[in-house]
Amino acid sequence: MRPTRPGACSPRGRYSVINPVGELVAFGRASLLEPVPRDHQQTPQEFLRRRIVATVTLLVGSVLLWYSLSIPAGDNRFYWATLALAAVWAVGSFLSGPLHIGRAWTREKEIGLPVIQSLALAAVIIAVFLAGSILVAQIPVLRGPVDELLDYARVGSLSLVWAITMVNGIGEELFFRGALFAAIGRRLPVVISTVVYTLTTVGTGIPLLVLAAAMLGLLCGLQRRVTGGVLGPILVHCLWSSSMLFLLPAILDRLG
After folding, report:
1. In 156-188, which ranges are continuous DSSP H helix?
2. What pLDDT, in 10s, does the model give residues 211-223?
3. Which residue has the higher pLDDT, 99 or 28?
4. Alpha helix ranges (H) inside 8-157
């Protein structure tokens, strides 16, 4: 039999055939379920400080998020408000205490940076949302708020909106999967951080954005728990946001 993967052989010296289902299951466990060993300890004083700073940051950031999305598309205040929001998330995160990049399992069960995992996870969630956009395009009550949100890119400078979106995505992950995640403690950090992240978008009045926050928050939260850091969630968030900014409007426009 011709080997499907050169160099892959059994203990008996025979070439083995890759099992796609097994590979997929192994990837899911490594990227979302099996934490990488680390020692990120906090003293009681550091933990209390992180909780206080995270709470204040969350309150200020939530208000600023609501304000930024209440600004009409094309108004330059939107750019300044979203940049200020990114600054709030980032500054609050760094003031709360140490943040970690994180590590991930490799296919050989070694430990490296969570880059390949993040690219694969981002591809999955992007595919799910783009497929869902076909349904959204047919439901006016869902499509209307989405079109209003995408108007910020249609009316203003697309490159500037993308740059601000990336900065904001990084800021959000530094806070929600960095500072806030660490401030929650060991009990249900994925669930609690996802719920809080989702609730911050409720005030926008955009159902799809709330759903996106729940799904993205859960995926990034699971990866944060596995990797112990913010690099993986940042990559997933930024890739997902870029696809929504550049691909989603094209799909909705084509579907009428």
Report:
1. 158-174, 180-184
2. 889 999 999 999 9
3. 99
4. 20-28, 44-69, 77-96, 116-136, 140-155
